[in-house]
TrEMBL record:
Signal peptide as annotated in the record: none
Cited NCBIfam families: PRK13059.1 (NF009605), YegS/Rv2252/BmrU family lipid kinase (TIGR00147)
GO MF entry, a single one: ATP binding
Protein name: YegS/Rv2252/BmrU family lipid kinase
Length: 306
């Protein structure tokens, strides 16, 4: 029988996981996996490190929003713990899980039981913190922190869109200098996004050709523009249209440096950050994640292609 440590955020998704805990444990147990639940609380990082280094567990499962998944992934990477991570999403946006093709509780359990592992890229900021899906900065970032919890519970990611549109008139630009590999861009911007995968901030297919395994980050820069143009970009993304627009710059790079004279709100996988100015480096295929067979097969075929 295999053993897994199941770390979960008890308040994510309206306390969804505690209500499903017996079902989750039973699903794994009847398939020969003994799961040890671990309720995440502030300040218990050392305990988790100790458990994951004990040699007892074959893999770890993380359940919560993007911030929770980020925290467990950082523990693995910072401590060179070689084991795969299973993801059971229960947050508002679930950007990382959706980027690897996981959309529901049952689907995530089935994927972990299937046992197929994908080696994913991660971003590394100022040689101090990893991120899985998004590092973002700008006044629009404040939307995620000020959105009412009941609104998020009832509308999910759409709550951010509603809040963002209501704040359009108050959004201010800031100066920014971006050095992406050997390309330098300077100007006035409303937002920057460093993306790993197709989805960010609940926007599906934000970068249609994003690849979690190619060693490159996708950089999205939203220029200073009129409120009408900004609203138009919002609606393009909402309708799952291409983000291609004269006011949007999109780049790919392995490393990136970002500086500004302005104070900028920042978020790493949905959680507040103060890592600025920043140097971002992408680490290629360093995090092992349970993923759908189709995603793993697609990656394997892409690697074989010339």
């Amino acid at each position: 029988m295999k053993n897994a440590l199941f770390t979960y955020n008890p308040i994510s998704g309206g306390h969804k996981i505690p209500n499903e805990l017996d079902y989750i444990l039973a699903s794994f147990q009847k398939n020969g996996i003994l799961v040890q639940p671990y309720r995440l609380i502030d300040g218990d990082k050392d305990n988790i490190v100790h458990l994951l280094k004990s040699g007892i567990y074959d893999f770890v499962i993380a359940s919560g929003g993007d911030g929770t998944i980020n925290s467990i992934a950082n523990i693995l990477l910072e401590n060179n713990i070689e084991m795969p991570i299973g993801v059971i999403p229960s947050g508002t946006c679930n950007d990382f899980s959706k980027s690897i093709g996981i959309n529901s509780l049952q689907e995530s359990i089935d994927i972990i039981l299937e046992g197929k592992v994908l080696a994913c890229d991660v971003g590394f900021i100022n040689e101090s913190q990893y991120f899985l899906s998004t590092f973002a900065g700008g006044n629009l970032v404040d939307v995620s922190f000020s959105t009412n919890s009941d609104l998020k519970k009832n509308f999910g990611p759409f709550a951010y869109y509603l809040k963002g549109l209501s704040e359009v008139a108050n959004i201010k630009s800031f100066d920014l200098k971006v050095t992406a590999d050997d390309k330098v861009i300077e100007g006035k911007f409303l937002l920057f996004l460093i993306v790993n995968g197709r989805q960010a901030a609940g926007f599906p297919n934000l970068v249609n050709d994003a690849d979690l395994t190619d060693g490159y980050m996708d950089i999205i820069l939203l220029k200073k523009c009129s409120n009408i143009n900004l609203a138009s970009i919002f609606f393009k993304v909402l309708s799952k249209d291409s983000v291609n627009d004269k006011n949007v710059i999109m780049l790919k790079a392995k490393t990136c440096d970002i500086t500004s004279k302005s104070q900028i709100a920042l978020t790493i996988d949905g959680e507040k950050s103060e890592l600025f100015p920043c140097h971002i480096e992408f680490k290629n295929k360093v995090l092992k994640v349970f993923a759908p067979q189709s995603v793993v097969d697609f990656n394997n075929e892409a690697r074989k292609s010339p």
